[in-house]
Design goal:
Elements: E1 2-3, E2 10-11, E3 20-22, E4 28-31, E5 37-40, E6 43-44, E7 57-60, E8 63-74, E9 79-87, E10 92-98, E11 101-107, H1 116-121, E12 127-131, E13 134-144, E14 146-153, E15 162-169, E16 173-181, E17 184-192, E18 211-214, E19 221-224, E20 232-234, E21 240-245, E22 249-256, E23 270-273, E24 276-288, E25 295-303, E26 307-314, E27 317-324, E28 337-340, E29 343-351, E30 353-362, E31 373-379, E32 382-389, E33 393-402, H2 404-410, H3 434-456, E34 462-470, E35 477-481, E36 485-499, E37 505-515, E38 521-535, E39 538-544, E40 546-567, E41 576-583, H4 588-616
Parallel strand pairs: 6-14
Antiparallel strand pairs: 1-2, 3-4, 3-14, 4-5, 7-8, 8-9, 8-14, 9-10, 10-11, 11-17, 12-13, 13-15, 15-16, 16-17, 18-19, 20-21, 20-30, 21-22, 23-24, 24-25, 24-30, 25-26, 26-27, 27-33, 28-29, 29-31, 31-32, 32-33, 34-41, 35-40, 36-40, 36-41, 37-38, 37-40, 38-39
Helix pairs in contact: 3-4
Length: 629
C-alpha cells in the first residue's frame, strides 16, 4: 500500500516496475527505490480526450496488453504519447502513439550503445551501426521540453526534459534511444502497426472538445479541434496565421493569406476514404517555389482513431496521403530510385513549398516549412514522399491515387469535381514498369512452352505410311492409293515428310485424303527442289531435298490416301522418293506463330506506355524523355 505525499490518499501501483502514478489531488507521485514516494513538480494531462486511455486493451502478435497510463511529450512542433502497456505475462512496454502512427516498443540491448557526446554530434541522415552487423539511419532527434502524466507509467529517472533519437534500418526495423539524463541512455526497438491490427477495446470514442481562442487581428473565435496535436491554424475570417507557442497559446504570425481562394471541398465537411470516415479540418494552397512555381490544394483530414491524413489535388488529379512508420531507408538522400517491397520507385520531383492561402488547423506549423525539402518517388498508383529537414528530421508519407469516381463517393462536390488536365503523376492509366512488362512477356513465353509440351503428351504420333517409292518407267509421274485407316480424334492433323534426292531439279507431291463414308476430300501439295553451282569462284546452294507439309483440322473417320509424285523431266531424272505420313503430331509452326503474336504484345504495350509516360513526366525535372518545344 502506498500513500500520496501531498494528500495521504492511498495509491495503488498495479505493477512492481512502474515508477510514476497520478493522484486524484493532482500530484504526480514518483516511486523510488526503497519505497520512497516523492511529489514531482510535473503536470497531469488535463481534459484527456484521446482515443487511448488507462484501461484500454489490445492485441499485438497474439499477445494481449492493457494500457496503464502515458507520458505526453511536448516537442518543438509536435506532441507525442508514450503509453505504458502491460502484457498478459506481466512484462511492460510502450505504445508510441500520435498523428495516426502506432508503435509497440520494447527495451533492447544494443551491441554498441552511443554515448551522449556521440548523440549530440550525430546529424540527421547520418548512418551508424547500432548492432555490429546492422547499419541504421538517424531520422529524427527531438527534445521533450515538457511532459505530462496520465495514470500509471514506467518512467526512469529524468529531468524536466529529455531527448529521443529515432533510427531506421532495413526490413522496417526501428530503434528509439531515450536520453533520460545526460549519461543515462536506454534503447527500445519499435514495431509500427496499423491501428486496426491492434484490436483496441475500451477506448474513448467521445468527440474532442475544441480549443478556442480569439483571433488577435479580428477577434473572430478560432476553434482548434485537434489541440494539442495541431500546431498551427489560420483564421477563417481575416486569414491571419497562428502557431502554437509555449505549449498552450496560439500566437499570431506576421503572415496572412496572400490571395482569395476557393476550395471544391468545404471546411468541416465529412467524407469516407478507404473505409475511414474523415473530417476536413484544414485547407491550404501550396506553391512550389524551387522549380516551376506550381500551385496545388491540400486538405487536412482527421479521424480520431486513424489520426491525420491529407488530400492533395493538382490539375484535377487527387492523391490520398498518410504518414507512415514502416518506410524505405535510403543509403543516400540524393538517390534517384529505390525498390521497396519489390516495387520500383523513381524520383519524380524535388521541391520546397510555401503557403499562399490557408484556413483551418494543421498538425504541424505549416507556415515555417520553407526549409523542408520534399522528394517524390513514384510507382503508379503509389508515391512515396520524403520530407527532409536538417532541423525537424526525416518523415515519409505514402500517397495513393484517387480516381474521380472514388472522390465523388468520398466527398460531396456541390460545384462538381475540378476538371482534369493531362496525366497525373501517379495516375495508373496504362502504367506498367519495364521490369513487369518484361516479366509478363517471359511468363507468357513459359506458359506457351508449357502448354505446347503438355499437349504433346496427349498426341498419338502414329505412323500411317513410311515407304520409299520408285519411278518404274519413263513416266514422270507416280501414283498410289493406301489402305484404309481410322482417325479417332475429333479434330487432328496429318504430317507429310518428303525426302527426294533431287539435284538441280524439283519434285512435287500431291496428296488427297478421302473420307470413305462421306467422300469428303482434303488435299495438300508440297514441292521439293534443290539447286547448287558456282558463281565467281564461290559455291552456292538453294533449297533442300526435304520438306514437310500438313493437313489440319481433319475430323474423325475412316480414310484412305491418294498420292501422286511428279518429277522434273531432265537428262538425269529423279529415280525414287520417300514419304512418311504421321497422324496427330505436334506442330511447331503453331507454336512459332503464337510466339510471334506474343512478342507483338509487349512491343505494342511498350510503345503505348512510353507515349503515356512521356506525357506523365512532362512536368518533372527528372524526366527520362526528351521534349521538343
Amino acid at each position: 500500500m502506498d500513500q500520496c505525499p501531498s494528500c495521504s490518499r492511498i495509491l495503488y501501483f498495479t505493477h512492481s516496475d512502474t515508477t510514476v502514478l497520478t493522484c486524484t489531488c493532482g500530484t504526480v507521485v514518483n516511486r523510488k527505490e526503497g519505497g520512497v514516494h516523492v511529489a514531482k513538480p510535473f503536470y497531469m494531462v488535463q481534459q484527456a480526450s484521446d482515443l487511448l486511455q488507462p484501461g484500454t486493451t489490445g492485441q499485438w502478435r497474439g499477445k494481449g496488453f492493457t494500457v496503464l497510463g502515458r507520458i505526453r511529450c511536448w516537442l518543438e512542433e509536435s506532441v507525442w504519447n508514450y503509453w505504458t502497456i502491460r502484457f498478459e505475462k506481466g512484462d511492460l512496454g510502450y505504445l508510441g502513439e500520435g498523428y495516426g502512427l502506432y508503435s509497440i516498443m520494447k527495451q533492447v540491448t544494443l551491441g554498441d550503445l552511443p554515448n551522449a557526446l556521440d548523440l549530440s554530434h550525430t546529424a540527421i541522415a547520418s548512418r551508424v551501426h547500432l548492432f555490429s552487423d546492422e547499419e541504421f539511419l538517424m531520422e529524427r532527434k527531438s527534445v521533450c521540453t515538457k511532459w505530462e502524466v496520465e495514470g500509471e507509467v514506467y518512467l526512469p529517472e529524468t529531468n524536466a526534459s529529455f531527448k529521443t533519437y529515432e533510427y531506421s534500418g532495413q526490413y522496417d526495423r526501428q530503434i528509439v534511444l531515450f536520453q533520460w539524463l545526460p549519461n543515462y541512455i536506454m534503447a527500445f526497438e519499435a514495431w509500427y502497426e496499423d491501428v486496426s491490427a491492434l484490436d483496441l477495446q475500451q477506448v474513448n470514442e467521445e468527440a474532442r472538445a475544441p480549443h478556442l481562442f480569439s483571433c488577435r487581428n479580428c477577434s473572430h473565435q478560432v476553434a482548434v479541434t485537434t489541440y494539442p496535436y495541431a500546431q498551427s491554424a489560420a483564421c477563417s475570417n481575416c486569414g491571419f496565421y497562428f502557431q502554437l507557442k509555449q505549449h498552450s497559446s496560439f500566437v499570431k504570425d506576421t503572415k496572412r493569406n496572400q490571395i482569395d481562394y476557393t476550395y471544391p471541398i468545404a471546411l468541416g465537411g465529412t467524407g469516407i476514404i478507404k473505409d475511414i470516415p474523415y473530417s476536413v479540418i484544414g485547407m491550404a494552397v501550396k506553391e512550389d517555389f524551387s522549380v516551376g512555381q506550381y500551385k496545388w490544394r491540400e486538405y487536412t483530414l482527421y479521424n480520431k482513431k486513424e489520426g491525420y491524413a491529407f488530400l492533395s489535388e493538382y490539375d484535377g488529379h487527387w492523391i490520398y496521403v498518410k504518414e507512415k512508420g514502416n518506410t524505405p531507408v535510403l543509403p543516400r538522400m540524393s538517390l534517384e530510385s529505390f525498390e521497396y517491397h519489390k516495387e520500383p520507385f523513381q524520383l519524380y520531383n524535388v521541391y520546397s513549398s510555401t503557403i499562399v492561402h490557408a484556413v483551418g488547423e494543421f498538425p504541424n506549423n505549416i507556415f515555417n516549412n520553407e526549409s523542408i525539402e520534399a522528394r517524390e518517388f513514384i510507382s503508379p498508383p503509389e508515391m512515396w514522399i520524403l520530407e527532409h529537414s536538417k532541423k525537424e528530421g526525416i518523415s515519409w508519407f505514402l500517397g495513393i491515387h484517387m480516381a474521380p469516381d472514388e472522390m465523388k463517393e468520398a466527398f460531396p462536390f456541390p460545384d462538381g469535381l475540378p476538371p482534369r488536365d493531362g496525366i497525373g503523376a501517379i495516375e495508373p492509366r496504362s502504367f506498367i514498369s519495364n521490369e513487369k512488362l518484361f516479366l509478363a512477356g517471359v511468363a507468357g513465353l513459359l506458359f506457351l512452352l508449357f502448354l505446347h509440351t503438355a499437349l504433346g503428351f496427349r498426341l498419338q504420333n502414329r505412323e500411317l505410311l513410311n515407304n520409299m517409292y520408285t519411278f518404274t518407267d519413263s513416266s514422270n509421274t507416280h501414283s498410289f492409293v493406301t489402305n484404309r485407316f481410322t482417325l479417332e480424334k475429333w479434330r487432328s492433323n496429318l504430317e507429310f515428310h518428303i525426302n527426294a534426292p533431287v539435284s538441280n531439279s524439283w519434285f512435287e507431291m500431291n496428296a488427297t485424303l478421302v473420307n470413305v463414308a462421306t467422300g469428303a476430300e482434303y488435299s495438300v501439295e508440297q514441292g521439293v527442289e534443290y539447286y547448287s553451282g558456282y558463281s565467281e569462284g564461290e559455291h552456292w546452294t538453294e533449297g533442300s531435298t526435304e520438306e514437310t507439309a500438313y493437313l489440319t483440322q481433319i475430323p474423325a473417320g475412316t480414310y484412305y490416301l491418294q498420292v501422286q509424285g511428279i518429277r522434273e523431266a531432265s537428262l538425269f531424272p529423279l529415280s525414287n522418293y520417300y514419304i512418311r505420313v504421321t497422324y496427330d503430331v505436334g506442330s511447331t509452326r503453331n507454336l512459332i506463330f503464337s510466339l510471334l503474336l506474343l512478342a507483338c504484345w509487349p512491343v505494342f504495350q511498350y510503345i503505348r506506355i512510353n507515349s503515356v509516360e512521356k506525357r506523365r513526366w512532362y512536368n518533372s525535372p527528372f524526366s527520362p524523355f526528351s521534349y521538343e518545344d
